[in-house]
Amino acid sequence: MKLKHLHKIDPIIIYQDDDIIALNKPSGLLSLHDRDQRDTSLIDLLRKYDPNATLCHRLDRETSGVIIAARSQEVYREIAVQFEKRKVDKTYYAIVQGSHHFKDHVIDLPLSITSRGKSKVDHRRGRPSRTSVESTEIFKHYTAVECKPKSGRLHQIRIHLASVNAPLAGDETYGGKYPYMSDIVYKYNKGRGKEERPMIHRVALHAYRIKFELKGKTHDIEAPLSDDIEILLKLLRKNDALPA
Fold it and tell me: How far apart are CA 40 and CA 18, in angstroms?
């Protein structure tokens, strides 16, 4: 579902019951209102579907993937406490620059927020932050990874990966670059007079899975990868595979 065609929330609901609604948020959609309140946000669409619903957490505008809404304040408080106590298990899928063999790798670096709203590693005033990283597919110039943040700092995955020389593809804020076919295909021919377009037009990060307890029941919810990340993977598998 392309963002410009998203007028109702129904197409992105991946699970719902009397207590929660799980959504597969597309990239480009704000979770909550921005300061100017000019763009439609996820909460706008959600409240049209269920006026009592409240988002239990948020994702960056460019990040796609699973996000949970509570259908009552009682449920919202219960899930919020679990987020606060780090009892919610979250898994993100990402494409990073470089060929990396991460195996049970833990990035443990304190983070703080700059005056410009960016995250930075800060050993003096930063708050404790941990992210575990596992390579799932390794290419010549890129790597697909699964990340599990053990804390919930702003842009935590993005800055942690950048700190180990593995910035996210498309993440210009933290040292990443947009991926182009000409970067991976020798003498790539883009066509006379044509401007080459990147293989993905945003930060290659997707909230893939979330797991938590609610009223004695375990919820384990996955959001299928977005089309643009799937396309990027196909291009890398075809053009950037390591020798057998």
Answer: 26
DSSP assignment of 118-164 equals -EEE-TTTPBP-EEEEEEEEEBSSEEEEEEEESS--TTHHHHHHHHT
The residues pairing with 142 across neighbouring beta strands, listed in sequence order, are 97
- Judge residue 134's burial from the number of C-beta atoms within 10 Å of its C-beta, 0-12 exposed, 13-18 middle, 19 or more buried: middle
Written as six digits, the tokens of 172 are 């210009």
Per DSSP, the three-state class of 10 is: helix
User: Which residues, in sequence order, are bridge partners of residue 121?
Assistant: 111
Strand-pairing partners, residue 213, are 218
Q: Which domains does the chain have, with CATH numbers?
A: 1-85 (3.30.2350.10), 90-210+225-244 (3.30.2350.10)
Place of tokens 């699964």: 146
The tokens for 175 are 């040292």
Question: How much is the pTM?
Answer: 0.93
Q: Which residues are tagged catalytic?
A: 60
SS3 at position 224: coil
Only one residue has tokens 């809404």, namely 69
Cα 168 from Cα 162, distance rounded (Å): 7
pLDDT tens profile 106-133: 999 999 999 988 999 999 999 999 999 9
pLDDT tens track for 28-64: 999 987 666 667 899 999 999 999 999 999 999 999 9
The Cα–Cα gap between 96 and 239 comes to 16
Q: In this structure, what is the dihedral angle of CA atoms 194, 229, 151, 216, given to the nearest 10 degrees?
A: 150
| H/E stretch holding 240 | none
Q: Are strands 205-214 and 64-70 parallel, antiparallel or unpaired?
A: parallel
